[in-house]
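2024-03-11 09:14:02 DEBUG pipeline.ingest accepted 1 chain
2024-03-11 09:14:02 DEBUG pipeline.ingest length=355
2024-03-11 09:14:03 DEBUG pipeline.predict start
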Amino acid sequence: MPRSVLPPPCSAPVNRAPVVTATDVALETGAVRSGASLVSAIDPEGRAVTHYAVWDADNAAGSGYWSLDGVALAAKTRQLLTAAEFARVEFHAGAFDADEVFGVAATDGRDWSGLTRFTVDTTPSNLAPTVSLDALTLARGTGVDAAFFVRATDPNGAADIARYILRDESGAANSGHWVVHGQAQAAQTDIIVKAADFSAVRWQAGTSTTGATDVITVTVLDKHGAAATASGTVVTAANAIPDLVASNAVVPVGGSLGLADVVTANDINGDAITLWALFDNTPGGGRLMIGDKEFGAGQYTQLSAADFANLRFVGGAAGDVDHLQIRAYDGLEWSDPWDTFTITTQAPLFSPDIF
């Protein structure tokens, strides 16, 4: 009778555990992410993952942690979760700057994977910059650096400020305007300036003689895209009349002095003095002269700036006191009121006959 041949015994296929993947991640302090966004598990045989185990290596106060349905899971121990529960698990970044280690394992109901560890680099949350504008009034035609009245700060440090966006909302003729690297900027448009170039930004007051008010806005953005905006006004003051200082003076008998030596004019708008007006109010012995030309007492005299530079007062008799009045014109307005000063003719302090 032939011998029967039996087939070799069949060995059961070896089950392979799920493969868990997790990569290191950087999160801001206090950030919250779903567990599924940080960890994935795939079973090589296509079986469903039935359970997860999560692990937290640090139980220090303020450190990161796992939570289920809003309840924190204990650290330093593996927390067993069903797949349905893991879908509701969240990860919370810690409250301080640190690198923390976490782990996840998974099973298909037959075999567990090893614990896959990953690191969370927690960095401080970005804080938005702040900006404010000081109230500013400028004389017509003057300018000032933007840093003088724009106050921008960033809680994360000045180096975190990336750029500025400037706007001039007033498009009126003769109004003020922004200037960047010496170039006037158009009104009612965004002017983008890198933080490194902000020192080259100025505000130029308008040229209106009656005054003007410009509305401006400044937006500050940091390197993370956070922004702050402030609005304010810059006032261009109406034209200021020249400010005169006329000093009383003494001249010796037969001597003379230049009027420009005793009278000065300051114009805060920077306007050049174009005309001078004088009046010799007393019939003293002194005389106002340009070269050989004499301007008599009681006579109103109007001179150009060039002529005034050559105007001299020639002393009269000893003891004579001449009362003079003067004012200046800046091309727009006369100084007012008239400035009054005296020039006294004084006898020599010694007699030349004794020498």
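2024-03-11 09:14:41 DEBUG pipeline.report The chain is about 5% helix and 45% strand.
2024-03-11 09:14:41 DEBUG pipeline.predict end
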